[in-house]
Amino acid sequence: MNNLLTTILLLFSSVALLYGQTKSDHKEVLLLMGSRFEFTANADTEAQAKTAVGAGIEEVKRIESLISSWDSLSQTSEVNRNAGIRAIKVDLELFELISRAIKISELTDGAFDISFAGIDWLYTFDKSEQSLPSKEQRLKSIEKIDYRQIELNRNDTTVFLKTKDSKIGFGGIGKGYAANRSMQIMKEMTGIKGGLVNASGDLIAWGDNGKSDQWKIQISNPEDINQTFGWLELKDMSIVTSGDYERYFTHDDIRYAHIINPRTGLPTTGIKSVSIISPDAEIGDALATSVFVLGREKGLDLIDGLKNIEALIIDDQNEIHYSKNLKLNEE
Ligand code: ADP
Ligand code: MG
Fold it and tell me: What is the Cα Rg of the chain in Å?
């Protein structure tokens, strides 16, 4: 391993960071948005790094209270409560996030859809053995899923879910958005040279890590984390990983991931993890979720058609598949 480089170790579906801590670094790890967040800043002084990390954390908390569908006081909950009833005025920030999520739905032909939340009550992803809902139940439930029923009015920034009992949720895009924003806030603070925000494997790194502006990412074998497939060196980049390793259930020995195919109402199968490498954590987050739904072939076709975006997929046979321009360096 090259000691001059900060190394990010991609462990199956989680990303761990071996950060070469220097005197002017500051790092904090805490639970936000129901996930483990890690913030690291490299600055001229440790005090500056600490202040920046604090500001990054506050930003994630602020976003959480805006987009959470669990918090009954959030604007998102207000929109959901009023599905089929009336349009709700929201902050421009939430309005824009919903608009961007809808663009990803259009790009992925509906594979990504924040209104998937209309049927999330059908499943409990607690790693147990479960029966599948009946076809009738599924078909009835997917009537609630359709990004085209989310009516946006830009003039007064209102959102109206036209279908009664439908719901939106940001589980597939929110962590990436929070990582982007938190980086932006940290970046602008005095003395900051570089850093990293890692939202449970959705990470963005920028600038100088104390040793170099190159960040080393190591891709590990899911079966044996001591064995690596290879590594990449990147500058100002995000790598986002969606995996079925924490939230899933099994049925007849098949593992169902916590990502739902809006066409069938069934959770996805066949893929264990998807990592997206791109400059933007929000787009990476949404695309990782999308590739799960699209499956390996269609997923890689989509990624191959996008500039500056690469993907790495591990399927349920532990085979690894790369997008066209992704070239790993060998150990
Ligand atoms: P991870 O939590 O592993 O990072 P993802 O970023 O892929 O995984 O997000 C999965 C979450 O996305 C689910 O828990 C759910 O909240 C939401 N989701 C599930 N299916 C869809 C879908 N088809 N489109 C958009 N979001 C989805
Ligand atoms: Mg995602």
Answer: 20
Which residue has the least CA distance to atom 1 on ligand 1? Answer: 242
**243 C-alpha to center of ligand 2: Å?**
9
By CB atoms closer than 10 A (0-12, 13-18, 19+), residue 188 is exposed
* Nearest protein Cα to ligand 1, atom 19: 259
Q: At residue 288, what is the residue type?
A: A
pTM value is 0.91
Q: What is the mean pLDDT of residues 303-321?
A: 93
Residue 17 has pLDDT above 70, yes or no: no
Residue 62 pLDDT: 97
> Among the atoms of ligand 1, which is closest to the Cα of residue 244?
3
- What spacing in Å lies between the alpha carbon of 303 and ligand 1's midpoint? 18
Cα torsion through 173, 174, 180, 181, rounded to 10: 150
- Domains in the chain (CATH in brackets) are 75-161 (1.10.3980.10)
Which of ligand 1's atoms lies nearest the C-alpha of 293? 23
The whole-angstrom separation of Cα 117 and Cα 115 is 5
For residue 31 the two structure tokens come to 């639970």
Task: Indicate the angle between helix axes 174-187 and 281-304, nearest 10 degrees.
Answer: 120
Whether residue 154 contacts residue 286, with contact meaning beta carbons closer than 8 Å, is answered with: no
- Using 50, 70 and 90 to split pLDDT, how confident is the model at 251? confident
pLDDT band at 125 (very low <50, low <70, confident <90, very high): confident
Could you tell me the pLDDT band of residue 288, with boundaries at 50, 70 and 90?
very high
End-to-end CA distance of the chain: 8
Q: From 222, 228, 260, 245, select the one nearest 141 (Cα to Cα).
A: 260
Q: Which residues line ligand 1 (CB under 6 A)?
A: 112-114, 116, 169, 171-172, 202, 242-243, 258-260, 262, 285, 288-289, 293
pLDDT tens profile 268-287: 989 988 999 999 999 999 99
Cα–ligand 2 centroid distance for 88 (angstroms): 26
Identify the CA nearest to 294 among candidates 324, 271, 321, 325: 271
